[in-house]
Design a protein that fits this description.
Elements (H helix, E strand, L loop, with lengths): L10 H13 L6 H19 L7 H24 L1
Helix pairs in contact: 1-2, 2-3
Length: 80
């Protein structure tokens, strides 16, 4: 596996590194990045703001996108 020599210290750094090292180099599609950003945004809201409960439909959609993200990363790692 390629070591890019960077270790981000914050979640936002991980997302930025994912975008610059993988999405911008077209290893992963932009849609995967958008889903990653959305999941992080939802996590931020859940942790730091008072919100209404998430609907079952929205939760299922987010879970499906998370599975797709993990599947794409696993596929990439196994191809190395």
């Amino acid at each position: 596996m390629q070591n890019i020599g960077k270790v981000p210290s914050k979640h936002v750094g991980v997302i930025s590194l994912f975008d610059t090292e993988f999405v911008s180099k077209e290893i992963f599609p932009k849609e995967l990045s958008k889903d990653f950003h959305k999941a992080f945004e939802m996590r931020q809201i859940a942790d730091y703001k008072i919100i209404e409960p998430v609907s079952p439909e929205k939760a299922k959609e987010s879970l499906s996108k998370a599975y797709s993200f993990v599947e794409a990363v696993q596929k990439y790692i196994l191809s190395l």
